[in-house]
Amino acid sequence: MEIITGVERRRRWRDEDKLRVLAEAEQPGARMSEVARRHDISRGLLWYWRRQLRQGRLAARDMAGPVFLPVQVSDAVPPELAAPGVARTDPRIEIVLPDGTCVRVGADVDAAALRRVLTALRR
Questions:
Q1: According to the UniProt entry, where is the signal peptide (predicted)?
Q2: Which of 64, 43, 57 is nearest to 15 (CA)?
C-alpha cells in the first residue's frame, strides 16, 4: 500500500548539476538510459539538457577555477602557411582543437561570435 500525503514537487536542477550528469552520460560506454535511471530522471530530460548544451543555453555559472589549456608559442611561420610575397602585419589568433580542427581569427574578433563558433564546432 502506498500513501500519498502531498503533491510531489518538481526538482530544480542547477546548471552545474546538469553538466555533471551530462558529463557522466558522455563517458565511453555510458548509456543514457542507465545514467537517467541512476539520477532518477527521464531519458527525455537528459536528451533535452544535451540539446540545451549544444545550443549554448546551458553553461556553468560558477567555475571552480580557471581552465588552462596547453599553448605553444613560436616565432617561425611554417613554410606551408606562408604566402609568397605577402607580409601579414595584423595580429592573428590560432586555436587548434583536440580533433585537429584549426580556427584562425583576427585579434579584433568579437568574443561572442567566437564563442558561438567554438560551441558549434564542439557538437
A1: none
A2: 57
At 113, the pLDDT band (50, 70, 90 cuts) reads confident
Q: CA 5 → CA 1, 8, 41, 55, distances in Å?
A: 13, 9, 22, 39
CA 21 to CA 27: how far, in whole Å? 10
Instruction: Count CA within 13 A, CB hemisphere, residue 23.
Output: 9
Give the residue among 115, 121, 106, 97 at the shortest CA–CA distance from 57. Answer: 115
Q: What is the Cα–Cα distance from 119 to 52, expressed in whole angstroms?
A: 12
**Cell 536528451, located at residue:** 47
Residue-wise pLDDT tens digits, 4-18: 555 666 788 888 899
